[in-house]
Amino acid sequence: MLDRPPSSTSSHTSSAAIEKGVPDRAALIRFLVHRQFNYLAQKEEADSESDNQNFIETELGGLSLENGCSHVGWNGRWNKKADTCYCWWVAGTLSMINSFHAVNIPPSRAYLLSITQHHIGGFSKYAGGHPDLYHSYLGLAALAVMGDEDLKDFDVGLCCSRDTLRKIELARGGLLRRYAETDGWAERGRKEFWEAIQAQR
């Protein structure tokens, strides 16, 4: 988020600060791209029964997107199980560094919607887990970044919908104006703020 304009709702563009801060951009992209792998449900489920840790033991060559995989899981480092939140962390990062084209979208969506989405609602960290707020939010964030038509446009840099960002910017601007104009927060200011929110819907 370095060099991000404070009132921008446009998509994030590459910045000089990000370019300077990554000594080997190609290596970073390669690392991030290799966080997605062919999800092997039977292997992960068997491992989770015998071990509460989040590991999979597999050959590095087995973590592949070749041969038309149907589900792509994501992890934070090699030899870890697929985790819902890494769909967001990695895909979001790739989006911010203008490398989103490397995300394998259809099987990533399939993993989220058919493996970690819970039948009572929300998303769990991994297959068979209970849903929680953190993984539910980041699962939806990942789907939004992947262009899910049922979700609002998403601001990757702030990890919220552009609609929410617009409201934050409007609230901030209104509060700063009111603070500059008055000695305190008048009831009139709060009413005008909510009227402005309703008018822009």
UniProtKB/TrEMBL annotation:
Gene Ontology CC: one annotated term: CAAX-protein geranylgeranyltransferase complex
Matching InterPro entries: PGGT1B-like, Prenyltrans, Terpenoid_cyclase/PrenylTrfase
Keywords: Metal-binding, Prenyltransferase, Repeat, Transferase, Zinc
Example GO molecular function: metal ion binding
Cofactor field: Zn(2+)
UniProt domain Prenyltransferase alpha-alpha toroid: residue ranges: 20-159
Family statement: Belongs to the protein prenyltransferase subunit beta family.
Name the record gives this protein: Prenyltransferase alpha-alpha toroid domain-containing protein
Protein's organism: Claviceps pusilla
